[in-house]
């Protein structure tokens, strides 16, 4: 990592800030598209190269390895499935970390949980800047650049990374302690999980009682009991529209991360524990890539 021209110097010379995006799935692809639209020089990498190549028509460069994507980057964003995937992309045979310039900043936006975030931050120590910045929001919000960015890290890096966050999100919530972005994300996603499961069971109960679930949703939407997110998922459940905004397998992973974080604090989350068992059933039944609203397919089912 020594002896290289700083990425920031070259970026200033060309007039376009260079960003590498590792992971171009449901969330990573819109992140890359919005950065391209805002004028950033974006290089993308994905394990399934075809997904990355879909962005070439938008002006992205497609790298054959994480290292190749990282080499010219001033900023590197990881938006991958879990902590193991992020660590592999950063430290594997063609890992990105060793290829980054010393003044580059690694923006870790994947939802990986508390323990993995600590591990990834340790990997970055003494090498590059590290900002923990998972996002809250669906793929639709990502498309529109309206995510909530939950950021934590060295305060000195904030002015450097904020222009990227302004493109990707409607708001950045800066938190004080390193890793608090991931802690906050786990808390928010636990609330999301409980909301979705509650709506799934409510829709199922209404149907079982021969009531119109749509009328129930209309009533909730017009009352203090309503939540815009929950009622939107409720309508998707009623219509059996499971186009993935937030795939069930990702929601289940995040619920498991919440349980793990709680366990380390000797805290029980009985609602989360119960719903995760149901969601695992839905995943096994073929709904892994469907939206989290597909939780309704197993809600209310009596076990033998």
Radius of gyration: 20 Å
Counted beta strands: 9
Helicity, as a percent range = 40-55%
How much strand content do the residues show?
5-15%
Main sheet attributes: strand count, strand direction, barrel closure: 9 strands, mixed
Give the integer mean of the pLDDT values: 93
Unreliable stretches (pLDDT < 50, length at least 5) are 1-13
Structural class: alpha/beta
Q: Count the helices. How many?
A: 13
What is the 3D shape?
globular
**Amino-to-carboxy terminus distance:** 59 Å
Give the ordered list of helices and strands. HEHEHEHEHEHEEHEHEHHHHH
Fold and architecture overview:
It contains 13 helices and nine strands. The chain has helices at 7-14, 28-37, 49-53, 66-70, 83-91, 114-124, 139-143, 158-168, 180-208, 213-221, 228-239, 248-264, 270-287; strands at residues 18-22, 41-45, 61-62, 75-78, 105-108, 129-132, 135-136, 147-153, 169-175. The radius of gyration is 20 Å and the shape is globular.
């Amino acid at each position: 990592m020594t002896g290289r021209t700083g990425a920031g110097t070259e970026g200033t010379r060309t007039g376009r800030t260079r960003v590498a995006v590792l992971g171009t799935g449901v969330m990573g692809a819109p992140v890359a598209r919005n950065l391209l639209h805002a004028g950033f020089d974006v290089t993308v990498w994905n394990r399934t190269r075809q997904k990355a190549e879909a962005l070439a028509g938008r002006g992205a460069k497609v790298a054959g390895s994480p290292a190749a994507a990282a080499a010219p980057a001033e900023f590197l964003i990881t938006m991958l499935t879990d902590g193991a995937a992020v660590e592999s992309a950063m430290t594997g045979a063609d890992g990105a970390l060793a290829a980054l310039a010393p003044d580059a900043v690694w923006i870790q936006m994947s939802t990986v949980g508390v323990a993995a975030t600590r591990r990834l931050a340790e990997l970055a120590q003494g090498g590059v800047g590290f900002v923990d910045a998972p996002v809250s929001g669906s793929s639709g919000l990502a498309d529109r650049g309206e995510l909530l960015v939950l950021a934590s890290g060295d305060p000195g890096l904030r002015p450097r990374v904020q222009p990227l966050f302004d493109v990707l999100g409607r708001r950045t919530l800066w938190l004080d302690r390193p890793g608090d972005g991931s802690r906050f994300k786990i808390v928010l996603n636990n609330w999301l999980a409980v909301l979705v499961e509650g709506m799934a069971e409510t829709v199922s109960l209404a149907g079982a009682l021969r009531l119109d679930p749509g009328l129930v949703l209309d009533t909730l939407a017009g009352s203090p009991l309503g939540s815009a997110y929950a009622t939107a998922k409720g309508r998707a459940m009623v219509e059996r529209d499971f186009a993935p905004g937030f795939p069930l397998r990702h929601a289940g992973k995040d619920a498991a991360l919440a349980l793990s974080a709680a366990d380390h604090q000797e805290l029980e989350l009985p609602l989360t524990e119960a719903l995760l068992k149901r969601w695992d059933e839905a995943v096994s039944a073929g709904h892994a890539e469907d939206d989290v609203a597909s939780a309704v397919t197993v809600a209310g089912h009596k076990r033998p």
